[in-house]
């Protein structure tokens, strides 16, 4: 293997969707960590806690929308070439998004008003109003992201995603300069960032706003038929993370939410490559599932899942060893109690690659109902563990320990369900990944680098 061939391979790698997705998600994760690090140093704990709760609730509503539409769009647009049919799928996605947003906003506002009337959650009406407004103005940004991903246009998708974060960071700097950096200002700055980037994607037609009337009942029913399971799966998956913060915030307090959230954001350094690779693999796996024999597809699936597990292994070990310095780097010297929580998160990170592949595998073999069953069982394990940790021990660390048990259960159940449809397993995936890395290493040793 010559130096020139290595350079050629490197240039080819940089152009791949996997590299673009990995780079974009890496930059996004770093921007998210930088944002949290700034706010941890500039905001009082109670104001930061309100902001994190706001993001948690908004993420739940956004998950319902993306869960209903995204995976179904990928399945239907991955191989679609007819421009008119693409437009009809885009229109159906817009129609369902607007309808779901209207229903969710109504429920959220009514629930907040009732809670306020009963004397619970004095801040909920304000939060509900801002979340409803953000849900409306973020529609072009979200739709553009889904459509670009479904058409494997990862560069444009990452530009949209990162631009929102950059504008929000600029808004934080402006708020600090104006001495206005409270939770309400953060709500407004985040909403304005979506407004500005939403205008950009509309001008570039990435959101295909004009297709809103093109969707027909056929496309809507197809998206709903698959999406109702996918929506439930993503919602429950989101609850696996957000339920921890919601329970901690309700039963312990907003400051404990910050202690728990700091290491949870650091774990995104592990989740980032996982998310990037799984996102780029899903359209390819879906396309190949109908074109290759089941055994050949399963062998490729095992190879991809095992290789990702090997990629994550050194990252997780490094995170366990460097937990203390990482927490200090992100939050300063006021959050030393978050280091033990981060170590627990790094343990469950070891299960994430295989757990994620088991989930997309069930979706690809057209068993989204079984994927929903898997994540629902994980949520039950997580909620029981959280309640035990909080009510009996008042322990935020115990909530993190429950996460380890949760993802181990999801990994084992997911592969058990998938084995009924394809010859895959945890052992086969790890062996296939190790074999692939060993073969590559031997090839490098024999060829030599000149």
Automatic annotation (TrEMBL):
The keyword ATP-binding does not apply. It is a multi-pass membrane protein. It holds the Pfam family Polysacc_synt. It is found in: Cell membrane. Its main location: membrane. Coiled coil: none annotated. The chain crosses the membrane at residues 20-39, 51-74, 94-118, 124-147, 159-178, 184-203, 308-328, 399-418. Keywords: Cell membrane, Membrane, Transmembrane, Transmembrane helix. InterPro entries: Poly_Biosynth_Transport, Polysacc_synth. GO terms for cellular component: plasma membrane. This is O-antigen/teichoic acid export membrane protein. It comes from Spirosoma oryzae. The lineage of its organism: Bacteria, Pseudomonadati, Bacteroidota, Cytophagia, Cytophagales.
């Amino acid at each position: 293997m010559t130096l020139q061939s290595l350079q050629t391979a490197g240039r080819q790698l940089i152009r791949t969707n996997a590299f673009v997705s990995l780079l974009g998600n890496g930059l996004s994760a770093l921007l998210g960590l930088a944002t949290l690090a700034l706010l941890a140093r500039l905001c009082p704990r109670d104001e930061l806690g309100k902001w994190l709760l706001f993001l948690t609730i908004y993420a739940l509503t956004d998950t319902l929308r993306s869960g209903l539409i995204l995976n179904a769009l990928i399945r239907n647009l991955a191989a679609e070439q007819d421009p008119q049919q693409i437009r009809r799928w885009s229109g159906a996605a817009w129609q369902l998004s607007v309808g779901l947003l209207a229903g969710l906003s109504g429920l959220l506002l009514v629930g907040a008003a009732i809670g306020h009337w009963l004397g619970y959650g004095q801040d909920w009406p304000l939060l509900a109003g801002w979340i409803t407004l953000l849900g409306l103005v973020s529609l072009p940004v979200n739709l553009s992201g889904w459509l670009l991903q479904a058409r494997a246009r990862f560069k444009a998708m990452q530009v949209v995603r990162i631009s929102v974060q950059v504008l929000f960071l600029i808004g934080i700097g402006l708020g600090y300069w104006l001495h206005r950096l409270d939770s309400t200002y953060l709500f407004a700055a985040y909403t304005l960032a979506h407004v500005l980037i939403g205008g950009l994607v509309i001008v570039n037609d990435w959101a295909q706003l004009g297709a809103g009337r093109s969707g027909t009942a056929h496309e809507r029913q197809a998206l709903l038929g698959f999406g109702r399971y996918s929506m439930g799966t993503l919602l429950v998956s989101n609850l696996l993370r957000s339920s921890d913060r919601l329970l901690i915030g309700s039963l312990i307090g907003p400051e404990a939410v910050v202690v728990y959230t700091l290491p949870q954001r650091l774990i995104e350094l592990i989740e980032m490559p996982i998310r990037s690779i799984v996102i780029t693999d899903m359209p390819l796996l879906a396309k190949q599932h109908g074109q290759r024999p089941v055994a050949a597809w399963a062998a490729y699936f095992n190879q991809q899942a095992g290789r990702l597990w090997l990629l994550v292994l050194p990252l997780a070990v490094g995170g366990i060893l460097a937990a203390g310095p990482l927490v200090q780097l992100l939050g300063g010297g006021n959050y030393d109690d978050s280091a033990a929580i981060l170590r627990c998160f790094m343990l469950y990170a070891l299960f994430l690659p295989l757990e994620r592949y088991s989930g997309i595998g069930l979706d690809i073999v057209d068993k989204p109902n079984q994927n929903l069953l898997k994540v629902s069982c994980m949520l039950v394990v997580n909620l029981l563990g959280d309640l035990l940790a909080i009510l009996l021990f008042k322990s935020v660390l115990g909530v993190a320990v429950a996460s380890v048990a949760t993802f181990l259960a999801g990994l084992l159940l997911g592969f058990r369900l998938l084995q009924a449809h394809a010859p895959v397993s945890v052992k086969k995936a790890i062996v296939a990944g190790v074999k692939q890395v060993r073969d590559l290493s031997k090839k490098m040793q024999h060829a030599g680098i000149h």
